[in-house]
Amino acid sequence: MQADPIRAPARAQDLILRHRVKNYRAGDLERLYPSLDIEEDFFTVYGFVTRSLSALMHPRTRNGVPVEGHRPWAPTRWKQARLLLDFVAARGTVHPREVDAHFLHGKVINYWGGTSNATTHLLAAMHYRGMLRVAGREAGIRLYAVHRHGDEPADDRERDARLDALIDRLVGIYAPLPGKSLAQFVRRLRYAAPQWKRYIPAGLARARKRLESARIDGTDWYWPADEKPADYEPDGAVRLLAPFDPIVWDRTRFELLWNWPYRFEAYTPSPRRKLGYYALPLLWRDRVIGWGNVSIENGKLQSAFGYIDSPPREKAFANQLEAEIERIGRFLRV
Q: What is the pTM of this model?
């Protein structure tokens, strides 16, 4: 499940979970994280995964960190990492502020082009490599602890089994996937398991044989063999989805299914926005028919909607839209 720091009206991970966890409230994930069987980690995107999924991807200690390039660390970098690891081990759980105060490594240019504390940057890099884990958060800031993993695969067969399991988890989240999207998603496993990058094409070939598939209007679609798409019936609810919800994450599939391009515009200059800063795709039955912008002003929930065509005239839609707004209010505690 993808994580995103923007809160408009809530973080993406909270917006995703509210449709999938009964009585979920914004912030529950961060509050309960230390007691849950999950990890913050990088799968196809950065976010939250089960510990069993995280274990499949590690150890990746010897590999480069994507935002730093793929070259191995220099000896001085390894020395810094070992000192920092000893510091974290001695304290159990640390805040980046403690680490920076102790080591004072200075500033570095971060992924977005701004500056970050060098120790914070190193903590993130060590987390990606699996040397550290996120033990929780304090006011949204990651708290780190030492992370220990199991052994590497004993042979090629075990390695391929792990890679196949990663692909199956991926497809289980995002299916049904058009062939182009399946290939793109599987290639993103170079971030989840960079140590197996050269084996990913073979894993994709095995997946195409293993998965159920069908050709529809010239497009090949893939889904898990134990799922029967024809058995599902959409319910009558209206749902406002997060921009990174698995239902809408793949923009190629989005346009194939609903014939219009949804765009995430938080980083688009305001004059060029067409949908809004944090427009939430509006799902009704089995179609995404538009979008909504939701905010809290003076303690009250405000909402505005746009539609690809005109809004449905059925009374059932108006009732369900009202019910969804009420659900969002409870979710946000407003």
A: 0.90
What are the tens digits of pLDDT across the range 272-327? 999 999 999 999 999 999 999 999 999 999 999 999 999 999 999 999 999 999 99
What structural domains and CATH numbers belong to the chain? 12-146 (no CATH), 156-230 (1.10.10), 234-332 (no CATH)
Q: How many CA atoms lie within 13 A of 74 on its CB side?
A: 3
